[in-house]
Amino acid sequence: MHIETQKNKIDKSAKDVYEFLTDLKNFERLMPDNIDKFEVINEDRFLFALKGMPQIVLQRKDQHPYDKIVLGAASDKLPFTLTADIVALDEDTCEVLLSFEGEFNAMMAMMIKKPITNFMGTLSENLGSI
Fold first, then answer.
1. Are 63 and 70 spatial neighbours (Cβ–Cβ below 8 Å)?
2. What residue ranges define each of the domains in the chain, with the CATH number in brackets?
3. Exposure pattern of 61-77 as b/e (b: 16+ CB <10 Å)?
4. Residue 39: per-residue pLDDT
């Protein structure tokens, strides 16, 4: 299953956005209002839970300075990645595209598509106001 947000223009440099996203504690500022729990486990891992949903642990999988950060599920039960692609437009502006990639059976994909789409939209929207 592949979900991506629209490109979000941000009035910050690609370097600033990249550094914001590589500091995992900043993800708490991007979370939806219905967040129930957020905890940084270590410099490469954090967990969060939205009200009524199970906890999810994300860990840093890959990063390329100033243009890409990849987070992935720490558990193999629900394998997925969340990628932020950052494109510099000029020295003070960039665009960020968030994408979600996961391998789920058809029933699971149908159940989680809308909540994940909404979650990704909220992350992208909140990223625009950092």
1. yes
2. 2-127 (3.30.530.20)
3. eebeebbebbbbbbeee
4. 97
C-alpha separations of 40 from 8, 48, 56, 80, 108 in Å: 26, 9, 12, 19, 27
Residue labelled with tokens 């954090």: 46
pLDDT at 108: 86
Query: What values do phi and psi take at 29, rounded to 5?
Result: -70, -20
Tens digit of pLDDT at every position of the chain (130 positions) = 999 999 999 999 999 999 999 999 999 999 999 999 999 999 999 999 988 888 999 999 999 999 999 999 998 887 899 999 999 999 999 999 999 999 888 998 898 899 899 999 999 999 998 8
Q: What backbone torsions phi and psi does residue 14 show, to the nearest 5 degrees?
A: -60, -40
d(CA 3, CA 7): 13
Give the separation between CA 61 and CA 44, rounded to whole angstroms: 8
Q: Tell me the one-letter amino acid at 65.
A: P
- Extended strands (E) in the chain: 2-4, 8-10, 35-42, 45-50, 56-64, 68-73, 80-90, 93-102
